Amino acid sequence: MSATQTSTTSRMPSAPAGARGAAGAQIVHRRPPKKAALLGVLAWVIGLLFAMPVLWMALTSFHKETDAATNPPSVFAPLSLEGYQTFFDAGPWPSLLNSLTASVISTILVLLLAFPAAYALSIRPVRKWTDVLFFFLSTKMLPIVAGILPIYLFAQQVRLLDNIWLLIVLYTSMNLPIAVWMLRSFLAEVPVEMLEAAQVDGASLTRTLRDVIAPVVMPGIASAALICFIFSWNELLLARVLTGTTAGTAPVFLTGFVTSQGLFLAKVCAASLVVSLPVLVAGFAAQDKLVQGLSMGAVR
Amino acid sequence: MSTTTQAPEATPPTPSTESRERSTSLAKAGDWARRAPLLPALVFVIILTQLPFLATLVVSFMNWNAYYPDERGFAGLDNFRRVFTDTNTRQAVVVTVLLTVSVVVISLLLGLGIALLLDRKFRGRGIVRTLMITPFLIVPVAAALLWKHALYNPEYGLFNGLLKAVFGENAPQPDWITNNPLWAIIAALVWQWTPFMMLILLAGLQSRPLDVVEAARIDGASNVQIFKSMTLPHLRQYIELSALLGAIYVVQNFDHVFTITSGGLGTANLPYFIYQTFYTAQDYGRASAAGVVVVIGTIIIATLALRTAFSLFKEETR
User: A78: which DSSP letter?
Assistant: First the structure.
């Protein structure tokens, strides 16, 4: 949001001095206000169109099953918590807890591994650090599905199937390249003078990391954590293949929630909304971090 | 370039009076001190991404079906022959390409248009941006379930419900998924990926030097001219970045295909096809061969893409 504001306020002062005369007035009125207003309305319409499925999902989740499955839709049907009740009666807590465990622990592991690596790729770069960086990115292009069979067979051998730690380790490797890229691009902005000053004062590597570098790259760490959390929380393929009844995550629970008999729309909407809630909350709360995270730190 | 810049950095603590031998051993120790923080992450990634792939490569040359464990053995190129001659596999390749290209292109174009709209000042812009992001924040399986059951369902889905509400009892009530299975998946994916493209492109638009644009406007440049010769070149790297990242994720899509059509109606893409071959058919050899083919295809495309990525990040690598 802040970026939006600054760019618009800086528009006038940064314009060349001559622009503020008669020509300046002309620029401001160049676009008829009617057209500008229309474009604003268009933006609103498109925004509502994109949000509509989610709004519809939310509304449906608060309807009774019989009101949810009508045609034409009964928008003003009485609200009910029936869908949520059915969902929570089905016992989603273990799977939600598994998702939380896998996402949080793998995110912490990712940060612990990625931060030193990013340091070695930016502040005191190893030789050929660009090659290493691109190696990390190239592993993201390797389809997960191409390595899933050996992982499955290995896990079967060592009895790690249906164990949440297997997912934690795999999610860590899945998100590590992204985090390395992100944190590196933030670390590249740490002022070298600050590091030199720390060195002169005789600070150890850990202290330098903690006191000099970490504060500067805290926003980067937050973005990386957010994006790693979201990707782990969303993951389905690995969880579906490698877990069962004990370590199944929320997305796996969701796929098994649709039944072939009876009406299920309200409870599916309720379930989808509950499972998406952590991501929605985190994403809305940190929209700018989301952009940085998605672009692996290339876009600020 | 890294060697030339780091050499002077590594030597300063060594006084010139010290022997040459000492300084090289120090430099060597310095090299390892530099590498040490990198190693845990590097080793971790190599073990978890490269080793499984090597194993896949080995299995791809084996005759290995879990339903017939006694017949396990070396198969030579049999699995690959079957992968290349099988119509299902070829179909999966076509579907993967179609799905990825259409989702990336359509969401890029939509995302660009919406980013241009949101770059303008209007009442409630922050709210509209928040509304736009919402689809991206729905868990993919949940989004696929939502589209399949709450929107596409021919009997009580929102689409047909709206048709009936607007056009009355005789309104057409198409079965969206059966009629256009692949487009049903594409639409649901475009809905989720347009916000992603929009966010990156909007950030790109807002990093545009506005005084230059303003100057061009004073010189009488039209909006179309400004867009073509100033905005678009500036946006180029953002467009490439969002296309590259979008492609990385969409090519691997499993959730939507799995949920909306279960790979039926000719919509099985490669990830789903491999999942099915290995998980349902238990044909490990063939699934691995398909996996190897996917990886080789990905490497070819990725080499091109990485070159793009390299130009993208070049300016900030200094």
Answer: P
| Every domain of chain B and the residues it spans | 4-37, 82-317
| Residue B212 to residue B230: CA distance in whole angstroms | 9
Q: What share of chain A is helix, strand, coil (3-state, %, to 5)?
A: 75, 0, 25
| pLDDT score, position B313 | 61
- Closest CB to A265: pick one of B121, B150, B207: B150
ipTM: 0.83
Report how far Cα A210 is from the mean position of its chain's Cα atoms: 25
> What residues does B204 pair with on adjacent strands?
none
Nearest alpha-carbon partner for B289 in B22, B9, B48, B77: B77
pLDDT of residue A9: 37
Q: What is the mean pLDDT of chain A?
A: 83
Helix (H, G, I), strand (E, B) or coil at B73: strand
And the tokens for A50?
Answer: 């994109």
Number of domains in chain A: 1
Its domain, for residue A147, covers 92-256
The answer to whether residue A113 sits within a structural domain is: yes
Per-residue pLDDT of A51-60, as tens digits, reads: 999 999 999 9
Taken as a whole, chain B contains a residue count of: 318
> Residue A140: which CATH number?
1.10.3720.10
pTM to 2 decimal places: 0.84
- Chain A CB contacts of B41 under 8 Å are 113-114, 116-117, 176, 180
Asked whether residue A177 is domain-assigned, the answer is: yes
Predicted confidence at residue A168, as pLDDT, reads: 95
| Closest residue in A to B295 (Cα–Cα) | A142
- Residue contact A43–B217, C-beta within 8 A: no
Residue A17 covered by a domain: no
Residues of chain A contacting residue B284, judged by C-beta atoms under 8 Å apart: 149, 153
> Does A56 contact B151 at a Cβ distance shorter than 8 Å?
yes
Per-residue pLDDT of A85-136, as tens digits, reads: 989 988 899 999 999 999 999 999 999 999 999 988 887 788 888 888 888 8
Q: What sign has the CA pseudo-torsion B130, B132, B138, B140?
A: negative
- Half-sphere exposure (CA, 13 Å, Cβ side) for A4? 21
**CATH assignment of B82-317, given 3.90.550.10, 3.40.1400.10, 2.160.20.10, 1.10.3720.10?**
1.10.3720.10
Say whether A265 and B196 touch across the interface (CB within 8 A): no
Distance CA A176, CA A168 (A): 12
Mean pLDDT of each 10-residue bin along chain B, 318 residues long: 38 44 63 84 90 89 82 81 86 91 95 93 91 94 94 90 88 90 96 94 86 84 85 86 87 92 89 90 88 83 70 54
Neighbours of B48 (CB within 10 A): 18
